[in-house]
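lol forgot to send this yesterday, sorry. struct tokens for the thing we talked abt
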């Protein structure tokens, strides 16, 4: 992409932000949680301008059905790809709030920020998650806790899963949560399979500098993102949070493998209740 082409795309993206942001702020004031259309449009504008195609498969939660989405995490682009699907909010580390541009976008997305250095912060974020789930929203949690290199899945963390159930119970709900595994992969670029040497242009992890990474992304050409909704996990007061989280991790792993094999659909999963840890709180195309 030439410098002129990049400049024109950034200008168009800035214009979209200037148009959508005031409308979004007004909608937040008037409609509260039902005001998620503007972020979706902004994300879709980004995908269109930078030739990112999102392929969605599996069965997502029905409109108005609450779910705690447990996703793997590969890149900053995950947020845009997932955010373009439907209105939702994210859970993110508190440092992002202070990042230029990105922090403001995260705030407009109604991101829940968690300070991982403060143990009490988990309870605060969990209460906010429970409130949103009780109101029928989708909340996305990158369950690995950090980005990976796109070649392997890191262990999913379970603390916020159990805490979200406790927060739902505090809201007066029956305490049942739909855990929704979500797998995100980047299988093709310029129409060809992504090889290991190209993953650093997509995956953003470790101590990688953001500016060079963004430059490589811009110059790399069109990219496909495959988003797979896995089999939902029914999580209630008798479910084990660790078992539930492990089941979500396994489902994401299966879904990622399914992108390779072309098999992405599975039946719903119900988490068993073992004797230990009971009650612990702690455009788009479709395949």
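and heres what i got for the seq, position by position
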């Amino acid at each position: 992409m030439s410098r002129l082409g990049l400049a024109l795309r950034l200008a168009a993206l800035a214009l979209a932000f200037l148009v959508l942001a005031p409308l979004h702020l007004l909608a937040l004031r008037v409609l509260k949680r039902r005001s998620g259309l503007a972020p979706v449009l902004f994300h879709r504008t980004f995908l269109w301008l930078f030739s990112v195609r999102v392929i969605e498969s599996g069965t997502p939660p029905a409109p108005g059905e609450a779910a705690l989405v447990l996703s793997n995490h590969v890149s900053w682009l995950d947020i845009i790809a997932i955010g373009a699907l439907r209105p939702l909010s994210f859970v993110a580390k508190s440092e992002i709030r202070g990042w230029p541009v990105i922090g403001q976008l995260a705030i407009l997305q109604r991101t829940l920020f968690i300070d991982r250095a403060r143990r009490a912060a988990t309870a605060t974020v969990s209460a906010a998650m429970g409130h949103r789930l009780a109101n029928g929203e989708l909340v996305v949690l990158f369950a690995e806790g950090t980005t990976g290199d796109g070649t392997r899945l890191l262990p999913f963390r379970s603390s916020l899963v159990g805490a979200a159930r406790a927060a739902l119970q505090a809201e007066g709900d029956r305490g049942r949560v739909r855990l929704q595994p979500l797998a995100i992969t980047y299988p093709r670029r310029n129409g060809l399979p992504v090889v290991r040497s190209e993953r650093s242009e997509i995956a953003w992890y470790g101590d990688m500098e953001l500016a060079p990474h963004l430059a490589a992304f811009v110059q790399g050409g069109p990219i496909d993102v495959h988003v797979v909704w896995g089999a939902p996990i029914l999580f209630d007061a008798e479910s084990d949070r660790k078992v539930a989280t492990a089941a979500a991790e396994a489902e994401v792993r299966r879904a990622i493998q399914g992108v390779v094999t072309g098999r992405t659909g599975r039946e719903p999963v119900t988490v068993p209740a073992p004797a230990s840890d009971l009650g612990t709180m702690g455009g788009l195309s479709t395949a």
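The CA atoms of residues 51 and 222 lie 5 Å apart. anyway ping me if u want another try
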